[in-house]
């Protein structure tokens, strides 16, 4: 983290403190542009290799109209495919995760796929004409693994490889031994909010609200909380704990019982650290556990919040207790953030809302908005264009932007 701090960007003295116009949170046409240019062509984390430890274990990941299945083959290799039978397009697996014994069988007509995605055979093959099985395997999806975390990208996009993109996080993830973490009993959680996804990011991308809105976090680390801004849409937030005992039960006992992790470097031994990845993902590490969470848009006014939690290998009783106490603190924080997100999103529909005026402590929010504007310059329009013209206007603005280079 010391290295990250040295490379992080300082906040400019005179910067535009406004945010995105409110119409961008309500527009269906804008939502469709975000689907194609912000989500489907950017890296998304779907799980960790420890979620699928054995051959035939699989994870599913849905994003808009795309469906993925990540599976470990008989050879131990993890691969990602479209969760789509090559016969009629049915899901070949259903649910969030599971296990296939030796093969994947489509529940619609019984086409059978090997664990490496190749087609083993079709039911009643004589009815299918001259079927070349080599041409009907499951379609692969671009996938990379970074310290055990599995990343997918449904379409080619502007981001480099995951290893290049997340290189500034490499040393810290290695120090946390992220590659060796294990899922907790019920690793996945999810909830749905009646908000635009950007309102979730607006709350999560700044620490200005911590002091008042998150009393437990303020007690734990609020005095030493800081945000670090890096290139390529990376954003690190860190808070150091242990200088005060805390008054709330969970904070008091967490500070008292959290065991020292001597294998961690000094800057991570007493910290809660959040590693952000544009457009919608955060990895959160404490000395005794880890999780990732992200917001997955469903519609302009509906967002699915989901994530997965992990523990470290050879967990001691003291680590387990600290992880439980951290979970209690994080549970309250999440509920507080969800309410703030709802209130923030409500304002985007009000005629009285005049736009943001941001604090220096909300510079992360501004950077997120700037990155969206760079991909979708139509977001620079203060007043809502006609819905049917938003896509064409965005294309024209992109061409104008390229012409100025």
TrEMBL record:
GO molecular function ontology, one term from the record: dioxygenase activity
Domain Rieske: 43-152
Top-level class of the enzyme under EC nomenclature: oxidoreductase
Entry keyword annotation includes Metal-binding: yes
Enzyme Commission no: 1.14.13.-
Obligatory cofactor(s): Fe cation
Signal peptide from the UniProt entry: none
Keywords: 2Fe-2S, Dioxygenase, Iron, Iron-sulfur, Metal-binding, Oxidoreductase
Domain of life: Bacteria
Keyword Iron: yes
PANTHER family: CHOLINE MONOOXYGENASE, CHLOROPLASTIC
Name of the protein in question: Aromatic ring-hydroxylating dioxygenase subunit alpha
Taxonomic source organism: Pseudogemmobacter lacusdianii
């Amino acid at each position: 983290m010391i290295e990250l701090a040295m490379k992080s960007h300082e906040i400019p003295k005179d910067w535009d403190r406004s945010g995105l116009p409110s119409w961008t949170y309500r527009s269906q046409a804008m939502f469709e542009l975000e689907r194609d240019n912000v989500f489907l062509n950017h890296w998304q984390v779907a799980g960790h290799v420890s979620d699928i430890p054995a051959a035939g274990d699989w994870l599913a990941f849905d994003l808009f109209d795309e469906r993925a299945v990540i599976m470990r083959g008989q050879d131990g290799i993890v691969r990602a495919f479209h969760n789509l039978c090559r016969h009629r397009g049915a899901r070949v697996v259903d649910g969030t995760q599971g296990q296939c014994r030796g093969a994947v069988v489509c529940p619609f007509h019984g086409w059978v796929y090997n664990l490496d995605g190749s087609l083993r055979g079709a039911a009643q093959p004589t009815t299918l004409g001259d079927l070349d099985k080599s041409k009907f395997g499951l379609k692969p999806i671009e996938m990379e693994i970074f310290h055990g975390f599995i990343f997918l990208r449904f379409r080619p996009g502007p981001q480099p490889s995951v290893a290049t993109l997340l290189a500034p996080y490499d040393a810290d993830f290695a120090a946390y031994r992220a590659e060796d973490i294990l899922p907790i009993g019920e690793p996945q959680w999810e909830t749905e909010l009646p908000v635009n996804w950007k309102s979730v990011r607006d709350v999560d991308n700044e620490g200005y609200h911590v002091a008042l809105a998150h009393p437990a976090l303020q007690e734990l680390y609020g005095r030493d909380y800081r945000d670090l801004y890096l290139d390529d849409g990376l954003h690190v937030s860190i808070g150091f704990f242990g200088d005060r005992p805390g008054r709330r039960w969970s904070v008091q006992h967490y500070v008292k019982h959290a065991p020292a992790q001597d294998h961690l470097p000094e800057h991570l031994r007493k910290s809660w650290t959040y590693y952000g990845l544009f457009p919608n993902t955060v990895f959160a590490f404490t000395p005794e556990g880890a999780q990732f969470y992200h917001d997955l848009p469903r519609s302009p006014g509906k967002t699915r919040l989901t994530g997965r939690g992990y523990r470290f290998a050879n967990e001691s009783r003291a680590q387990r207790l600290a992880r439980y106490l951290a979970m209690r603190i994080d549970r309250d924080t999440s509920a507080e953030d969800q309410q703030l997100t709802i209130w923030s999103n409500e304002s985007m529909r009000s005629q009285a809302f005049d736009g943001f005026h941001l604090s220096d402590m909300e510079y992360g929010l501004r950077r997120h908005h700037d990155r969206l504007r760079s991909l979708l310059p139509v977001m620079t329009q203060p007043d809502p264009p006609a819905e049917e013209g938003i896509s064409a206007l965005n294309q024209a603005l992109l061409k104008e932007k390229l012409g100025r280079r």
